[in-house]
Every structure is written in structure tokens, then in C-alpha cells.
Amino acid sequence: MNLIYKDKQLIFLSLFIYITSILVGIGYLNISQGNLLIAISIFIIYFFQGIKNEFYILDIFIIILNTIVIVFTKQVNLIFPSLLWMYNGIVRRSRINLCSLKLILKFSVFFYIFIIMSYYFFGFNLDKNIEMWRLTKIISRNSLGFTHPNVAMLSSLSLLFYYLCILTEKKDFRIDKLIIPLIFLIILYSLTLSRTTSIAVLMLFLLLLFRNKYFFCNKYLLNNFVILLFILFFLISISLLLIPSNSYFDELLSGRITLYKSFFSTTGFTLFGNSTLEEAMFDNGYLQMLLSKGIIYTAFFIIVVIGILKKRINYNESSSWILIIFFNVAITETTLSKMELWIPLIILLNLNINQEENL
């Protein structure tokens, strides 16, 4: 299949997934409808690419295993690991380049800003603004047109990842290149007051700025460190359920630890999870997955993610720091199950193979 044609497929698919996630984020589609549209789009493009090229045995094995998990749990939404694996295959067969990344980013930014403008000029989702108690006072948080202020911030995180893909491709992380997204982040934080994502992104900027001055690490060793931290963040999250909670720390996290323990006392750890927790107010992606989807699915998800990281082509140091921050954010946000965040990350992991094809 012509590489340029594959590139167009990837651009369309990436934009479609982001726009679908925005429609879910503003409440126009529910989560099930959004997941169905994303799954169908990935299946179609993967299937047609496979017909023109070939279906890899490992890919088929992953899909079959995932299907078995779905049959036992009777939860169709557990197809997510296969979608990650298939999208990774689509990217590796495509020819993503700087122009493609810029095109995806421009259209995504346009759609994101359109929602915010609708919020300010037409009062779209104005009723989704919230007031809440945080530490010693009541704070007001703007939804910016989304169903929740945190959703608005997480939707911007996908845009940031695309932008960092472009900087990685250009090998340019000068401070002037990070000023605009930093200002954008400060403005978003002042409106949404979404703390954890903002702090994580700020840490990422600092890591990217000073990586060459203060961080010297073998790139392959760093990739293993990423995998180790991914597992460690899982274990840290589980420990929140098992060890006595600190009242100050719990208050700092707006009572999240107490909430996690409440869910855990009701269901405990199960092989196939508890689907009633799918819509529960979890702010920890690791615990949300483990308690609602079960031990078997979680183990399968971990294996798939590690497989994608082991198959990565781009061992660039900056991409590893970006992944570390992403896995860190999942401790306080349900980011692990959001395809729109994985899309730019998977592209980032495969940038070098596309650079070779462009030569």
C-alpha cells in the first residue's frame, strides 16, 4: 500500500479519535458510544492495512486473548488493549512526518478552542461549572464547555503531547519553544484549577529543559526505567487501599483515598472486576482499572503496554520522560483508558521508523 495513502489514513484516524473524545467530553456522546466509534475506526483501518500487507501472528494472538477476556467478563469495553496494539501496528506501517503532526495538531487545537469559545460566547455547558471545598476554602472551577473542569484539562493534555511529538521530531526543546504551551497551561489552570495535571506538566517541562544538563542515562536503560515506574505506580496505587491513610494527605487529595477505600471495602480484588464501578468517581486510573475490570484484564493490559514499550523504535530520552509523566498523572486521573492520550504517545514511540522511511 502506498505510504502516503497510509499517512492520510493515520491523520484521519488520529483526528477522528480526538474529535470523538471531545464529543464525549462535552456530553454530546456517552462513553459507550464514543468507545464504539473509536473501536470501529481502528478495526477498519487495521483490517484494510492487514489485507494489503499481512496480519502478524502476535497481533492475532493478542486479539484472541483479549476476546477470551471479553467473553469471560461479558464487558465489550475491555477491547481497549487490542485497540492500543492495533493502533501501534497502524502507526508502524504508516509514514508519519512533521507536516502530518502539524496538521493533526492544528485541527485538534481548532476544535478545542471552538468548544471554549462556545462556552464563553454562547454559555455552552455553563451549568457544568462547579464549586467545591478544597483545603480551607470554597473554590470555583470553570468547565470551559466540557462536562467537568478536569475533562477540559485532560483534553488539552493530548494537544500538548502532539506538540511535544513535533519538538521531538525537530530535536528542539529550547525554552522559547515551551513558553507558549506553558502560558496556555497557566491560563487553563487559573480557570479549571486542575492541580495534579498542571503540576505534572510543569514537571515535564522542567525535565525536558534540563535533561541534557543534569540527566545522563543510557536510552535503553531509561526505557526499562519507564517500564519499572509504570509497574511501581500500579503498586503505589494498590498500597493506598491496604495501608492506613494519612488524614492530611487524604484532605490534600480532596478525600480521594477515603473514596478508594470505600469502593475497595465493597468489592475487593476480583478476577473479572465489578462493572458497576465503571461509572464510579475514580480519580486513579490504576485502581479504576483493577477494581472495575479485574485482575485478569489488568494483567493483560500491563503485558500489552510493556509489549508496546519494548517494541518502541524511538528511544529518545525526551520521549521516555513524557511517558513517565503520563504514567504519573494516571495516579490522580483516569488517563490509562483514554485513547486520545495514547494516540500521540504511540506516534512518539514510533517516530524514528517513520524518519527512516522518509529518507
Q: What's the short story on this structure?
A:
The chain is 73% helix and 3% strand. It has 359 residues and is an all-alpha fold.
Provide structural commentary.
The chain crosses the membrane at residues 12-29, 35-51, 58-83, 103-122, 143-164, 179-209, 221-243, 286-309, 321-349. The protein is mainly alpha-helical and 359 residues long. It has one domain (3-225, 278-358). It is 73% helix and 3% strand. Helix 1 runs parallel beside helix 5, helix 4 (80-93) packs parallel to helix 12 (285-310) and helix 8 (195-214) packs antiparallel against helix 13. The longest helix is centred in the C-terminal third of the chain and has 26 residues, at 285-310. The radius of gyration is 20 Å and the shape is globular.
- The value of Rg in angstroms is 20 Å
Structural class: mainly alpha
Estimated share of beta-strand residues: under 5%
Unreliable segments of 5+ consecutive residues: 353-359
Q: What is the oligomeric state here?
A: single chain
Main sheet strand line-up = 1-2
Mean pLDDT: 85
Global shape: globular
Compute the separation of the termini in Å: 18 Å
Task: Count every helix, treating DSSP H or I runs of 4 or more residues as helices.
Answer: 15
Main sheet record: 2 strands, antiparallel
Strand count: 2
Give the proportion of residues in helices: over 70%
Number of spatially distinct domains: 1
